[in-house]
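> call design_seq(struct)
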């Protein structure tokens, strides 16, 4: 399969690129600025790294327009902010929606014609458990990820008759760079509040993405990978 993964240079995205590559798929991934990390993932997997900010609609259209039709699109790129809503500011609010919501739209818009022509395809959007239940001090992030869930469900209904499946992964706390700004005490509390007693790993999310890519009779669903923290 031809697979495109956004945010593929590190964290969950890099783990997904590596796992899909091990399974023999043809891979392209987008990244914004970490050239060294992107080059390392590309060298390890044979995937093609493309430097592209998903928030830039014209750039996304130009870059993805050069690629062959995709069988799978994984919208993984995202950014977060932890703090009171009074501290975030309009610039950060707008940027978070530009990446976390508009970026998904831009990538879907770019790959959809090829999927429609084939009457087949799979889109996997990465949300969050906070998109399901909301999180104090993460109002904007929660709002973005809630929008991703709504977009997933609506698209599944719209694109299902064309043979295109759309599903959503809702991770819990995953040990990636996004956690670096959270204090250790809070991280310990989150782990204690998780029934499985640990945080998620990028590899946990990657395995779930493989499942969603292969589950031919599954669409419009939100797969909660949170260790039981949200049930």
């Amino acid at each position: 399969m031809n697979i495109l993964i956004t945010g593929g240079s590190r964290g969950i995205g890099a783990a997904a690129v590596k796992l899909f590559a091990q399974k023999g798929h043809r891979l392209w991934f987008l990244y914004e600025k970490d050239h060294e990390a992107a080059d390392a993932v590309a060298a390890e997997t044979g995937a093609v790294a493309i430097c592209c900010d998903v928030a830039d609609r014209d750039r996304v259209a130009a870059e993805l327009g050069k690629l062959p039709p995709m069988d799978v699109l994984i919208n993984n790129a995202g950014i977060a902010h932890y703090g009171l809503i009074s501290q975030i500011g309009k610039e950060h609010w707008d940027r978070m929606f530009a990446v976390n919501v508009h970026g998904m739209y831009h990538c879907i818009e770019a790959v959809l014609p090829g999927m429609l022509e084939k009457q087949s395809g799979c889109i996997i959007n990465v949300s969050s458990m906070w998109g399901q239940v909301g999180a104090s001090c993460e109002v904007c992030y929660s709002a973005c990820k809630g929008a991703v869930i709504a977009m997933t469900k609506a698209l599944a209904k719209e694109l299902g008759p064309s043979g295109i499946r759309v599903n959503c992964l809702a991770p819990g706390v995953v040990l990636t760079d996004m956690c670096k700004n959270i204090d250790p005490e809070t991280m310990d509390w989150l782990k204690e509040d998780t029934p499985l007693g640990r945080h998620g790993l990028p590899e946990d999310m990657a395995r779930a993405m493989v499942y969603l890519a292969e589950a031919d009779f599954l669409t419009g669903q939100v797969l909660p990978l949170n260790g039981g923290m949200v049930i």
